[in-house]
Amino acid sequence: MTATPREGHWLVFFSLLVALSLELTPLPGALATWRPPWLALVMIYWVLRYPRRYGLALAWTAGLLLDVLKGGVLGQHALAMTIATWLALRFHLRLRVFPVWQQTMAVGVLVLAHEFLVFWVDGVAGDALLSWQRVTPVLAALIAWPLMSGLLSGLRARVHMTT
Amino acid sequence: MSPLTQTDNKPLFDRGPSLGTRMVLLAILSVALMVLDHQQGHMETVRRALSVAVYPIRVLVDMPAATFGWTRESLSQRHRLVAENRELRMESLRQRGRLQQLAALRAENARLRALMESPAKRADRMQVAEILAVDLDPYRHRIAINRGGQSGIYPGQALVDADGIVGQVTRVSPLGAEAILISDPSHATPVELNRNNLRTVALGTGDLMRMELPFLPNSADIRVGDLLVSSGLGDAFPHGYPVARVTRVERRPGESFAEVEAEPTAALNRGRQVLLVWKGGETEPLAAETPGLGGDDGGAQ
Lengths: 163, 301
Prior knowledge:
The complex is a heterodimer of chains A (163) and B (301). Chain A has 163 residues and is mainly alpha-helical. Chain A contains seven helices and no strands. Chain A has helices at 9-22, 38-49, 56-70, 76-90, 92-97, 100-125, 136-158. In chain A, helix 4 runs antiparallel to helix 6. By secondary structure, chain B is of the alpha+beta class. In chain B, the strands form two sheets. In chain B, strands 1-12-3-4-5-2 form a six-stranded antiparallel sheet, with no helix packed on it. In chain B, strands 6-7-8-11-10-9 form a six-stranded antiparallel barrel. In chain B, a hairpin with an 8-residue loop joins strand 10 (242-250) and strand 11. Chains A and B meet through helix 1, helix 3, helix 4, helix 5 and helix 6 of A and helix 1 and helix 2 of B.
């Protein structure tokens, strides 16, 4: 009944592709800064579930594609994704057994590190405006994580991906 | 969350570099990429190749907006289409009337320029491009358009809409291009006052409805309502396109510069179509279409 590990690949790549699209989807003006870092969230989800199968190289590549899509400095999101994924992998044993709310808080910290790196590179590259809105993606991620991980777990159960 | 299970495929001995080492290597690689890309711009070929690969994602994201526009067009009611058509016809008639005058003015201008022995100005070639409905970065005013190197777009090319200058192309890939808006905080537009040719620079502020003119002395002859047009200096924009209208002039006796603000005339956040302008293009579409005045340089002799 259960799929071999290899058969779950398409779900992972599909979800990453959807995350890349969501990173670009137009939001209404007032919510423009409230976009959760979808790609980082999806990547963190998969490395928490399959820490041996998906790792830093995939995170880095996805981040590089996001850089090209967003037209920013090449390597900006690649760096942020690498660090966030590394933190997730480093603490995956603890993060996986947390209850949902605690896991959400921990993911919030990872996302905070991710956003800080993105902001830092913006600052070094020359044009960064410091405002309270810089933390809105983290708040949005706190809302998005339980929903997103629930959805992906449901999909995973449906295609019988093994752990 | 499912509990920790034993089927984690964990090998007894790890092979390859450890997690920390891999993280450090990838981080160094990212930093190297950033330095190469930002400081020297060496990565343009890599970026161009990758951007072709991910262009479908941009189109995919744009699709709902495009479909919505298409559906609205094909489902709108007949009487509304008729009304719109009539309105457009009237508009076209008005524009054509004005164009006739323009042809006479051009001839006169060419004659005067010939008298002053300065080279005649030529009409700019234009092409319509569509703005893709994608959000690039909420803190920078960048847009993606659906024309690229294959249509002859080049970096630095000016973008205008029906009411004025929108921005300029910053990056070109074969299928699409990215442009910076004149309201981006890192963008400066060389402008002049239409009324008295006073030249200055208009800076973007990060606000779509506001530009700043910080380099005007208190004694400068500028008033609220003055139209700023592109001056053509710096070779970024062609000369004479509207940029912004002055909304606020505050002269501060204690300081050396006045505080002047202006509002862009172009619909920076509303339009879906923009025009790409080729400076001093070879073709002169205006003269050819204007009735009654054959030959564009007729008045030059």
